[in-house]
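S1.2 Input.
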Amino acid sequence: MDLRPGRNGLPCLTLMTRDGARADIYADGAHVTSWIPAGGSERLFLSEVSEFTPGRAIRGGVPLVFPQFSGEGALPKHGFARNQMWELDDVAVGADRAVARFSLEDNEATRAIWPSRFHATCTVVIGGDALSVTLGIRNTDVGPFTFAAALHTYLAVQDCRLVNVTGLTDLAYRDAALGDPPGTSPRLDTEPAVRFQAEVDRVYYGAGPVRVNEPGRTLAIAAEGLPDVVVWNPGPGLAAQLKDLPPNGHLSFICVEAAVIGRPVLLAPGQSWQGTQHLRTA
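S1.3 Output.
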């Protein structure tokens, strides 16, 4: 399997397994834009009006957030990993799964805004009813650095107003939609589920597995090395301001993101870290 021209000619890999599972991954951002489980239908949202322009974030799929979450620092929003062209290192197709590995190293553009040297990897595994995405970071610099990271997963839904996310009850969180700044004293979620009747922009700390429930289907989400969970939907007001969303596009997705935000990762020279998000249909 090789890279081929995708939308607007951007290099894209179509990863397929023998059981019929499929994923599209763009080298621009090592960005998974489509995931179809074996015998199933599309489970990731991708905006039909996303630009697909080099250096511009793709709206949908699984953007890689590194080394900054959102606008919580001096870097561009969500850092730069999602806006860099990654190298395809390896593709392997076995009896029941397929694996693609991409890599990114610091370059003049990244060092101009974040001076640290690093080696990043993105590993995508599909097969049967599951998708796993792993972000790995190795410190190749002479000094330590800290970072935040997230797998900003856009899940396709029929109508977000009919969706709920369970598994977050009794957890501490902050909600940017309610004006909570970083570092604010957290709220405690006592509700049985998160629902999407208006804008939701929450970071849950120390979360475990969650489930996304909608009429007729469920998605199970688990993570390793990414202790926090971001739950986001822009709601109608903010969505109307996003030029890369179609009218009422917010109704067709929710984001559930495995992340490390509350306690950023500290890496000494030569040290490595990795975080994985697992999606499985149920």
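S1.4 Remarks. The chain has one domain: 4-281.
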